[in-house]
Design a protein that fits this description.
Organism: Pseudoalteromonas arctica
Number of strands: 8
Structural class: alpha+beta
Protein name: ACT domain-containing protein
CATH class: Alpha Beta
CATH topology: VC0802-like
Radius of gyration: 15 Å
Order of helices and strands: EEEEEHEEHE
Pfam family, one: A9CJY8-like_N
InterPro entries: A9CJY8-like_N, ACT-like_dom_sf, CASTOR_ACT_dom, CASTOR_mTORC1, UCP008459
CATH architecture: 2-Layer Sandwich
Largest sheet: 8 strands, mixed
Distance between the termini: 32 Å
Shape: elongated
Helix content: 10-25%
Amino acid sequence: MSKQTLQLHSTTLTIHSLDVDSEIPATLFKQSMFIIAKTNDELSIVCPSQLAIDSLDAEHDWRALEVLGPLGFSLTGIMANISGVLARANISIFAISTYDTDYVLVKQQRIKDAISALKKDGYQFLNEPKLT
């Protein structure tokens, strides 16, 4: 399988955990990127860190690596391959899938290591990431 092209997003993200019955803040819907996931047991929101959300818990300082798509539903192993590369480099991830593509969130302090490991494994990056 050929390796997908990835793109590093510049926005720093926070992953919030909220009570399952919490109201979703209206300001969330004005953000350029956000993810809402709700089950019977939890409500999670991923959004730019600049947006303050009153949550039960929060994980700050994540960066998103986007698998450039759109990706067809018949494609297999994309997230398994990327997460495998990062697992072998001892890098934790938070994975998100949308209709068209996948995102791999990596903690800011490990993003250089993640990019290095992925490049070593043959992944390409659109617009060489500028890491500060």
